[in-house]
Design brief:
With about 180 residues, this protein is α+β, with helices and mostly antiparallel strands. It contains five helices and seven strands. The chain has a seven-stranded mixed sheet, with helices on both faces. Helix 1 packs across helix 3.
Length: about 180
Amino acid sequence: MRSRTRIRLIEAADAATIAAHRARDVEAFRPWEPAQPADFFTPEGQAKRIETLLAGHRAGTAWPGVVLADDQVIGQVTVGGILPQPHLRRGSVGYWIASVAQNQGHAGNAVGLVLQVMSDELGLHRAEASTNLENVPSQRVLRRNGFSPYGVAHSSIFLDGNWRDGLLWERILDA
């Protein structure tokens, strides 16, 4: 039986599970994410990170969520850089799914669910995202959720020892 994907706001109690996923998957994520300090992979480091994310949520600049399958945390989906001003109303989507739960549709479902949060709960007009040019699986997730590529950010992120270009994505939410 295929598990159902849900999302919810991140909680302090999620720190240990997230740390375990991130520690196990450090090599799998190396090509796609910047290097992290050692404490990023510990429950204590994740607890501090979650505190910061929730402070952003209280300030209205972020919506940090976890992705669940069968009520187990399997990843994160976050809206960051929220600009709620009437003439901007946009946010940037980021996500990851633990290797043990990949290729089961959870990333696509989580992005679809967070787009609903962005539109219905946060009142945003525009969703943005970026991917490494070589990250075809993540690009498929975005395309399936109505995103379109609109440009390349040259040398925009330092990954795995090199500056990499990013492919920029957009989706209008209330069109």
